[in-house]
């Protein structure tokens, strides 16, 4: 079994979609092993999105992710990383995310794509340490 870090981003929290996201995770058969509502400071945001440093959308992404509380979760199950990315849908909610996925059902713009899920088991380990240092 594998772990992944899931975030409901500020747009998802603001729109009242926390329950919907958690519900889809649970219905898929994945397990919540940590869950927290968290205000994200600049330092955590920079560390989380370090791979995007220098990209044109980096500054705007940091502003967005620090703009309000996020829900962070550690999710566990067989192939949890891929399983959650399937539930979430592709990064662009219109061009990439299929209907029936979280982003496909609720998203319109690439920045405001509601959720984050680690992209590999290695990223998951790094991100879980970052978001849940006590875990
Ligand atoms: P996440 O890492 O949040 O799960 P992802 O792995 O699907 O998303 P990445 O390519 O890692 O996508 O991009 C990280 C986040 O940066 C995206 O989820 C989105 O919020 C934002 N983003 C990506 N591309 C753009 C863009 N072209 N313009 C604005 N924001 C973007």
Automatic annotation (TrEMBL):
Q: Name one Pfam family in it.
A: NDK
Q: Which UniProt keywords apply?
A: ATP-binding, Cytoplasm, Kinase, Magnesium, Metal-binding, Nucleotide metabolism, Nucleotide-binding, Phosphoprotein, Transferase
Concerning InterPro entries, the annotation shows: NDK-like_dom (IPR034907), NDK-like_dom_sf (IPR036850), Nucleoside_diP_kinase (IPR001564)
* Required cofactor(s): Mg(2+)
- Its EC number is 2.7.4.6
Alphabetized GO MF terms: nucleoside diphosphate kinase activity
Residues annotated as the enzyme's active site: 116 (pros-phosphohistidine intermediate)
Indicate which residues the UniProt annotation says bind ATP: 9, 57, 85, 91, 103, 113
Q: Does the keyword Flavoprotein apply?
A: no
Record's subcellular location: Cytoplasm
Q: Could you tell me what reaction this enzyme catalyses?
A: a ribonucleoside 5'-diphosphate + ATP = a ribonucleoside 5'-triphosphate + ADP; a 2'-deoxyribonucleoside 5'-diphosphate + ATP = a 2'-deoxyribonucleoside 5'-triphosphate + ADP
Residue ranges annotated for the Nucleoside diphosphate kinase-like domain, each copy included: 1-135
Mostly located where?
Answer: cytoplasm
Q: Which CDD domains match?
A: NDPk_I
* Ranges in coiled-coil conformation: none
Residue span of the signal peptide, if any? Answer: none
The record ties this protein, via SMART domains, to:
NDK (SM00562)
Assembly and binders: Homotetramer.
In the record, the note on similarity to other proteins reads:
Belongs to the NDK family.
What's the stated role of this polypeptide? Major role in the synthesis of nucleoside triphosphates other than ATP. The ATP gamma phosphate is transferred to the NDP beta phosphate via a ping-pong mechanism, using a phosphorylated active-site intermediate.
Name of the protein:
Nucleoside diphosphate kinase
Source species of the chain: Saccharopolyspora rosea
């Amino acid at each position: 079994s594998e772990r992944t870090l899931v975030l409901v981003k500020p747009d998802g929290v603001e729109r009242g979609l926390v329950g919907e996201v958690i519900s889809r995770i649970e219905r898929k058969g994945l397990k919540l092993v940590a869950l927290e509502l968290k205000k994200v400071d600049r330092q955590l945001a920079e560390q989380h999105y370090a791979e995007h440093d220098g990209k044109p959308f980096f500054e705007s992404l940091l502003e967005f992710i620090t703009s309000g509380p996020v829900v962070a979760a550690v999710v566990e199950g067989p192939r949890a990383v891929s399983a959650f990315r399937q539930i979430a849908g592709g990064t662009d909610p219109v061009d990439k995310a299929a209907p029936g996925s979280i982003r496909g059902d609720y998203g319109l713009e690439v920045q405001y794509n509601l959720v984050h899920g680690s992209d590999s088991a290695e990223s998951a380990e790094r991100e879980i340490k970052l978001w849940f240092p006590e875990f």
